[in-house]
Amino acid sequence: MRVVRGFWRLLVGIKDALVLLLLLLFFGALFALLSVRPNPSVPTSGALVLKLDGTIVEQPADADPLSVISGNGPATREYRLRDVVRALQVASTDPLVKAIVLDLDRFAGGRQAALAEVGEAIDGARRGGKPVFVYATGYADDGYQLAAHASDLWLNPLGAIFLSGPGGSQLYYKGLLDKIGVTAHLYRVGRFKSAGEPYIRADLSPEARAANQALADSLWARWNEEVAKARPKAQLAPYEKDPAGALERAGNDTSKAALDAGLVDKLGDRIAFGRRVAEIAGDAAGGKPGDYQAIPIDRYLAAHPEPAAGKVGVLTIAGEIVDGERGPGTAGGETIARLLTDELAKKRIKALVVRVDSPGGSVTGSERIRSAILEAKSQGLPIVVSMGSVAASGGYWVSTPGQMVFADPATITGSIGVFALIPTFEGTLAKLGLSADGVATTPLSGQPDVLKGTSPTIDRLIQGSITSTYARFMNIVGAARHMTPEHVDEIGQGHVWAGSTARQLGLVDRFGGLDDAIAFAASAAKLSGGDARPRWIERDPNPYKALLAEWAGRRPDGDADAAVTDPLARIARAPQATALNALADAGTILSGPVVQVRCLECGGTAPAPDAASVRAMLPGLVAKLAR
């Protein structure tokens, strides 16, 4: 019998080895396939082309191989902000780059502060003598924020410019939950902490309405200020206030309305645009009409890698903050803390810049990251915080160790508040003729009970935990910003602020980007020369997943929305974006920890998740509801 069992184990081992070998062969072949480039001939000089068919983010997420292969992975490509900025900075002094081209036909957007950094890099390239051309069939707020910095702004004759500004409606679920018998138990501290309001109200609370309106007004004022400075001849105010009148005065020609308002320089198709670029960059050898000597950004970045690392460590905290280990694009508390502590053990850095682009999330994950940063501070390293597009709630929690905090006027920050949301289904069971019953040994047995409803004891315990966490949050902020807890409470209460207001309130110190923060940290540590350069504290990139992400963003069966260039069609699909955001928010709340320091209100200024991303999220959301 032992011989039979041994033989069986041998067969199983052989089978497992063969399966593993086949998997290795499959992914090896896939890697080779994805590594093949259809156009190996790239000119050494010409126009640097930033064909941004996707979104600009702080830190792109890894592609999941199974999701991509099955077609359920995100179809919109993500471009890392620092790569786009670096390409523009290097090109500004590169004699082989004759011009810079931004192709925004399928640009899916980005957060306002991130786009402002790209805009500054475009301005720098223009100061370096590089003409910057931009083309699209249509521009919305995000695309036009970038396009306004160009020296030659083109629009397709069939295109349009729609400037809507931040704002719009959001879904409220109270009526639906009442109809199906679901009770939402919201525990919170903060009059303005409105993340859970859609589940207990049918409309905005007065506090949330006031706070959201103030934030939207601040961001829009900053947008107009930036665009007007970049393009002084643009008649923004009349175009924004009366777009229908501007269209009628142009004979209902949308592109002519934009031209008459000074929003664009020229109207023309791609062939005409390409010929104009070719006058400076040169014609493409053997190319089609409108082709020019083009240097793709990916090839350009590969040919110009980042300089050797210095002694200013840069730790990126991007995306939702969660407990445990996570890959890029999500801030796993354990992952980020270990990256930093491992770097500290190597004794290679003399200063630390913490780059935050996060709306928060888990309290424990946020505290795990903060503790690791405090360890760096205890070793005498200057700690400088660079806030990206959003550093709110848990994102502000992890920013508190900074001795100097930089932010953009359009950074979304604050949201110092705490909440928890638990749905129960006793009403749903009653509507179905079902009931629930059981026994208990203590007041906490079976609590929180999603079938019978929460008990007064568990309600008091959860609310007490929320109150305690908020008090700790106030004390942390007060100690960091030299404020009393009472003053922190006045500007806290879950209120979300734009960076321009946050500086006045003392929540941030200076306006500036990541480069400014790195320079300040180097100066504080008395570093110069090569030592003053950044050392990125991050996982080594996975080349397989990077190629998968690139392939996912370019596959012909990708997200249909990303392929749409008609501006009217994009506007018509706005309701779909609202629904996708609502699903994403619901999944975020239900799949997260009970006690959260998260700013869901901050998501309204970000690009909507693509349909594929939400499809991938739905199974987990359904499973969460079913538990």
Q: What's the mean pLDDT score?
A: 87
Largest sheet properties: 8 strands, mixed
Number of strands: 23
> What is the beta-strand fraction?
15-25%
Radius of gyration: 26 Å
Shape: globular
Structural class: alpha/beta
Helical amount among residues, as a percent range?
40-55%
Q: Identify low-pLDDT runs.
A: 34-40, 555-562, 621-627
**Through-space gap between termini:** 44 Å
Number of helices: 25
Label this structure with key terms:
alpha/beta, eight-stranded mixed β-sheet, disordered C terminus, 627 residues
Brief sketch in words of this structure:
With 627 residues, this protein is of the alpha/beta class. Strands 11, 14, 16, 17, 18, 20, 21 and 22 form an 8-stranded mixed beta sheet that branches. A 6-stranded parallel beta sheet has the order 9-7-6-4-1-10, sandwiched between helices.
Describe this structure in words.
- This protein has 627 residues and is an alpha/beta fold.
- Helices cover 47% and strands 18% of the residues.
- The protein has 25 helices and 23 strands.
- The strands form six sheets. Strands 11, 14, 16, 17, 18, 20, 21 and 22 form an eight-stranded mixed beta sheet that branches. Strands 9-7-6-4-1-10 form a six-stranded parallel beta sheet, sandwiched between helices.
- Helix 15 (394-397) links the parallel strand 16 (383-392) and strand 17.
- The longest helix is centred in the first third of the chain and has 34 residues, at 2-35.
- Mean pLDDT is 87; it is low at 34-40, 555-562 and 621-627.
